Amino acid sequence: WMNSFLIKARLEVKDLFTDLADGKMLLRLLEIISGEKLGKVNNGRMRVHKVENVNKSLAFLHTKVRLESIGAEDIVDGNPRLILGLIWTIILRFQIQEIEIK
């Protein structure tokens, strides 16, 4: 599902849990599906830079949907349950809801 959007930015997710860890793909995905700019991506390689990128994504999502029990550290650490839950929440908000409106 993600790759169908990320192809527009010439990006591809191969391993969901590691590819989202730095927050860059998540930011790009949200920009593409929302049509909004979410700010500059931090290209640093340190954990603090990754957490910053994921926090930008989560802050944006908090304005659109209710997120509970998920923090940037969960994504950076590759927590499968929370990452899958986050992706499902994004699908529900940006795909399913859009279909219902039409």
From TrEMBL:
Name the domain of life.
Answer: Eukaryota
Q: Which UniProt keywords apply?
A: Actin-binding, Repeat
Q: What is this protein called?
A: Spectrin beta brain 4-like protein
Task: Please report the stretch or stretches of sequence annotated as the Calponin-homology (CH) domain.
Answer: 1-95
Q: Which GO terms describe its molecular function?
A: actin binding
- In its UniProt entry, the species of origin is given as Hirondellea gigas
**InterPro entries reported for this sequence:** Actinin_actin-bd_CS, CH_dom, CH_dom_sf
Which Pfam families does the record associate with it? CH
